[in-house]
Amino acid sequence: xxxxxxxxxxxxxxxxxxxxxxxxxxxxxxxxxxxxxxxxxxxxxxxxxxxxxxxxxxxxxxxxxxxxxxxxxxxxxxxxxxxxxxxxxxxxxxxxxxxxxxxxxxxxxxxxxxxxxxxxxxxxxxxxxxxxxxxxxxxxxxxxxxxxxxxxxxxxxxxxxxxxxxxxxxxxxxxxxxxxxxxxxxxxxxxxxxxxxxxxxxxxxxxxxxxxxxxxxxxxxxxxxxxxxxx
Length: 231
Ligand code: CTP
Ligand code: CA
Fold this sequence. Notes:
Blueprint: E1 14-20, E2 24-27, E3 30-32, H1 39-50, E4 54-60, E5 71-75, H2 78-89, E6 94-97, E7 104-106, E8 127-129, H3 133-139, E9 147-154, H4 162-173, E10 177-182, E11 193-200, E12 205-212, H5 213-227
The structure holds cytidine-5'-triphosphate (CTP) and calcium ion (CA).
C-alpha cells in the first residue's frame, strides 16, 4: 500500500528536510529568487514528525508557520542553506533536499540600494555558481548508511525524456532516491497537489499518482524507511 498509516515507524530516527527557495541579494531590498513555496518540504517535515522522527527543517523563505514538534532553522541564501544542512546532516539518518536553492548568485552584493542612472542605462548583473548541496551531502556522507533524497522538476526535450534526465541527475548527484516531477504540462508551484516518480539508485521506480503533497511525503518516507538500516 502506498503511503500507508504507519505511526511510529521513524521513532528514534533523525532526519533533515530542506524546504522553500533561496534568495540571492543584489542590494538590501532586491534579490534573485524562485517560485518554490515550501509546501512539499513542510509536508515532509510534518509527516516525519508524525511518524516519530526527530526532525530538523531548514527553511528558506517559506511563509508557512513552523510545524509542531519540529526544530526549524530559517535561512535565506544558498550558502546559508548549505551551512545549515551540512551541520544538521552530521547526525542525521536521512537528508531530504526538497528546497530549491538558487543555482547562481550575484558576484557582488551592494551594501546600499542600487539607484537608477539618469541616462536611462541599466546595470549588468554578473553571476557565479552556488555550491551543490545535494551532491556535497551525497558524496561526503556523514555515515555510510545515511539515506539521501533529492527532488527534481524536469521537462522532456530534444536530448531526452523526463526520466532520461532524471536518471542522469540521480547518478550525477549521487543520492539514493530522486523524486521527479514532470513539469512539462503545467505548474506545481504553490499547488497543494503533486504527482511524481521516485527513482532509486538501486534501479527502483515507484509511481506516485496525483494527490496531496502530504500523500507524496508519505511515500517518500516509506521509501526512506525501507533503506534505513537497523530495526
Ligand atoms: N540542489 C542542491 N544545491 C543546488 C541546486 C540543487 O542541493 N545548488 C538540489 C535540490 O534541492 C534538489 C536537487 O538538487 O533536491 C535537484 O535540483 P535541480 O535544480 O533539479 O538540480 P541542478 O543540479 O541545479 O540542475 P538544473 O541545472 O537542472 O537546475
Ligand atoms: Ca537548479
